[in-house]
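Internal ticket - ligand job 294, 2-acetamido-2-deoxy-beta-D-glucopyranose:
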Amino acid sequence: MHAATLLFLLLSPVTIATLNVRRALAPGGYRDKVNIYEVPGGGSLARIGNEIHVLGANGTVVHKATAGSPLKARPPSKVPALLSSDDDDSVIHIFTYWINVICSPYALFTGSWRVPFVPESDDGQTLFWVQDLEEYPGDTALMTVLQYGVSEAGGGPFYSASTWYRDPMNIFHTTPIRTETGVLMESIITLTSASPFGAETFDYNAQFTNIPGTSMNVTGVAQLNWASIAFEVFNEKDNSDYPVGITFFEDVNLKLQNGVRPDVFWPGYVYEPEQIMLDAVTQGSTNAQLRLIY
Ligand SMILES: *[C@@H]1O[C@H](CO)[C@@H](O)[C@H](O)[C@H]1NC(C)=O
Ligand SMILES: *[C@@H]1O[C@H](CO)[C@@H](O)[C@H](O)[C@H]1NC(C)=O
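stdout (structure tokens):
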């Protein structure tokens, strides 16, 4: 074998690996592009053993991804995956949350908010308004997302809606559907199946009920016991990259499988450098109201 051929054989896997590790933007931060998958319209996800199957609307498996295993056990006091800034420092995460420590899992998490004004400037910023249920401690999350700007799923200098599921390695999303300022986004995440006691796997659905094409079923996954509402910002330059005004998250409801409404307190959050604030106008798990001031 020629030395040059040998050199090529030795180098090429490295080159390919380098090319593949392209970072791409998704809610929660940058991820390896190869681990981001689109779920066909009307399709769903199923966790089968150590794989996550992407199913088309007709039930055909269109992709199998190796499920990510937890990166490392996280101390309970640390913020979960969605809220950690990964390796990117141009990220702003503003969030409020409630952790379910009761035996009964979350069965329902709703929230609705109006699509804000279009930001005055388009500097290539990406903004995400996220309602989600996450594993805690853990690294998986199911979320409805209103997006302004571009992510790996698509988008542009306009608003779009999609549903996402992430595990420690992969992210799956529905096709973003364009929406407009003033539209009331009605987000709902439901537990669709779990054995009543001692269940090891759980089935969920997340969608914006006002936007057809955003519904995603996820079956056979871990219990999602961290509920949060978050605002994430990537690549912003100044305050004109945000919408003006206040976004109210209304009809914020949290219910457990046993019918109980937990005694929820949504902590406030102020991001000083940009003076963005998220707080509760009305606390609780029944028709709570939160506001995000830009
Ligand atoms: C999700 O599951 C529900 C109930 O089984 C079903 O009606 C619906 O068509 C499924 N798919 C989507 C995309 O919501
Ligand atoms: C099932 O759906 C997938 C994804 O949407 C599509 O690629 C495939 O052709 C469909 N198969 C049949 C038998 O309709």
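Auto-summary: The longest strand covers residues 154-166. The chain has one helix and 21 strands.
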